[in-house]
Amino acid sequence: MITTGQIIRCKAAVAWEAGKPLVMEEVEVAPPQKHEVRIKILFTSLCHTDVYFWEAKGQTPLFPRIFGHEAGGIVESVGEGVTDLQPGDHVLPIFTGECGDCPHCHSEESNMCDLLRINTERGGMIHDGESRFSINGKPIHHFLGTSTFSEYTVVHSGQVAKINPEAPLDKVCIVSCGLSTGLGATLTVAKPKKGQSVAVFGLGAVGLGAAEGAKMAGASRIIGVDLNPKRFEEAKKFGVTEFVNPREHDKPVQQVIADMTNGGVDRSVECTGSVQAMIQAFECVHDGWGVAVLVGVPSKDDAFKTHPMNFLNERTLKGTFFGNYKPKTDIPGVVEMYMNKELELEKFITHTVPFSEINKAFDYMLKGESIRCIITMGA
Fold first, then answer.
1. Residue 102 catalytic?
2. Belongs to which family (predicted)?
3. Element (H or E) spanning 54, and its range?
């Protein structure tokens, strides 16, 4: 391409201050350096993690910044040492990575790459610590190594999943974060058997992904637990068969579920980040074989407390990160699930906006109206 090795000027939605609307700016995007690729983003979507760090609640603020980490695009150019990607490849940038060389990448059991695991505080690239974005010479910070709220972005090649070029990027872009986190938590970690019961705590995008995984696995009962009753009707589309609102019961939720299921569910998946929900999710699984999986990220001072007898009675507690999916190895397979009509994505997409109206996506999420809002970059 004629832009190879050149600075590209393009539009980006820049967050100049915490909680303030993003501003459409012309940014300069430098060429990719060693082990990096430059991607033309065609579609991106808004995840709650973007909103959380944009609000800058409970973490060190880093501004100005270009957010965004769920997206689909086409490789424009590659930097030195990149051999598995080339211009024209259809790709999903991922907020975590797979270097291929560390003990985690060599392990079949882990996806927590030593080099490229999620880092919310890094504002530059790993190679040299510098940003590839600038406005009038002033650097603009990266976010999660992806920064997809820009028409072009630079990403470490280990954070780029090459996918089937026939896959529609306006649908499969949502595979690159929340949906896969929930789906994998059920399919690859909880592993319910056909006919078993599954409880899902939290019916946001990640929880609905977990419910979809339970449905794909053939669960006979999928119990959704959420404090927002407005979510219950929508969740039926994802296979949820029964609902529990903790506010409507005098008994602890774990007891309510145990009473509903003759002793407890076979599997549970917690997708809220509430430590109380984590304890409930563990204590609601059946003794002898029950497995609970924690997905939500707790507050830093939280402590998980339960009686040791819950473990001795043969309940299992697991944690997972990004559904235990390795970005480059496994995410192309999740896309193929969609292409083979095993996985539905359309029902996760509730809104679509042009890039120029990206702030509407924030409004939809803050009002609790959207599951996923697709942002069309060319519009």
1. yes
2. Belongs to the zinc-containing alcohol dehydrogenase family.
3. helix 48-55
